[in-house]
Amino acid sequence: MTAFFDGIAPVTYKGPDGDGDLAYRHYDPDRVVLGKRLEDHLRFAVAYWHSFAWQGGDPFGGQTFERPWFGDTMEDARLKADVAFELFDLLGVPFFCFHDADVRPEGASFAETTRNLEEIVDVFARKMETSATRLLWGTANLFSHRRYMAGAATNPDPEVFAYAAATVKTCMDATHRLGGENYVLWGGREGYETLLNTDLKREMDQMGRFLSMVVEYKHKIGFAGTILVEPKPQEPTKHQYDHDVATVYGFLKAYGLEGEVKVNIEQGHAILAGHSFEHEIALATALGVFGSIDMNRNDYQSGWDTDQFPNNVPEVALAYYEILKAGGFTTGGTNFDAKLRRQSLDPADLVAAHVGAMDVCARGLIAAAAMLADGSLAEAVAARYRGWQMPWAERMLASPLDAIADLVATENVSPRPVSGQQERLENLVNRFV
């Protein structure tokens, strides 16, 4: 045991009237909702990068956190792993997620970097033997190092493409060994800053081939998890090729990967793309590519990705409503891709942030389940489209355009607008949240 969380007891469920700010008031992991335990519905995961690797910087200032494991040695990396699993156990979370660069120092060569990763994977494997926390997904950091300043798969330099491919191979091996349920690719710099020096077609073809290689390797090693792509429209690049769910789906269709790859949707990225979180989830489920979520929020007064812990129950409820409608998570889950504010310096702040976020998600999912069980929203949607169940409407979809025109003329079809009842439905949602 380290001394980092000294004096902080394991977090337990104490109910809505419980005392202390390091207790669950709404997240009772064993509570059964719609026939399933809350823990199994929500599938919470702690993000290794924001919780243990982020130093508290922002675009206008540097490090504010002082952690005993901040450094570039393997000793630092092992201490970081010790503290990470202590947090997982304190919170009782079933999963965690990591990038390779979060958990190991960069070596002087690719071979040394790989050895460093493999050593930490050994550490994780030993810790997982005595911890209830498993791996939701692993991924490779293909955006922080200067070698990736012009992208990884989309880089104009084939040596960078090769280095990125080799790195992903090692990270897939690590994820597979640890029993990860998914493998994620986030193209943080898979985009462009200016079209003046960009060959769009070449870069998209390179990215398509790269993703195909990942799928091929998944099958070669017998990895049973899901391959996920995480959409984001911009930041750090001006335009990214995985802009939003619709763009990713079009990309997957173009390269014949729509049956192999799903999406990991982040709330903050959805907002930056000009969508709501629930829109992106609903679209992904409609297209058959929904996989997992990163639960966070942005500061709506800022134009960038602030990665804050969720605190808006109505927003969260609408997201989980779409997930529950689609049958819930399979290999995916709720990863907190969220970080403390740079003034929140204390170890207890890290615990409190996750406790509050898990309570918000629990409240949101419980409300979503109640909406689903009530059925009023679903009935309103069904009623709105009921006309399409009429035989003539079904026949019309199989008819040519001129036959439909004849039908309108001979039957004197004259549509009358019908209310969408948006305000009444919004009022209905407010009864649950």
Automatic annotation (TrEMBL):
Keywords: Carbohydrate metabolism, Cytoplasm, Isomerase, Magnesium, Metal-binding, Xylose metabolism. It is an enzyme of class 5 (isomerase). The keyword Protein biosynthesis does not apply. It catalyses: alpha-D-xylose = alpha-D-xylulofuranose. It comes from the Bacteria. It is found in: Cytoplasm. Its EC number is 5.3.1.5. GO terms for biological process: D-xylose metabolic process. NCBIfam families: PRK05474.1, xylose_isom_A. This is Xylose isomerase. It comes from Acuticoccus mangrovi. The gene is xylA.
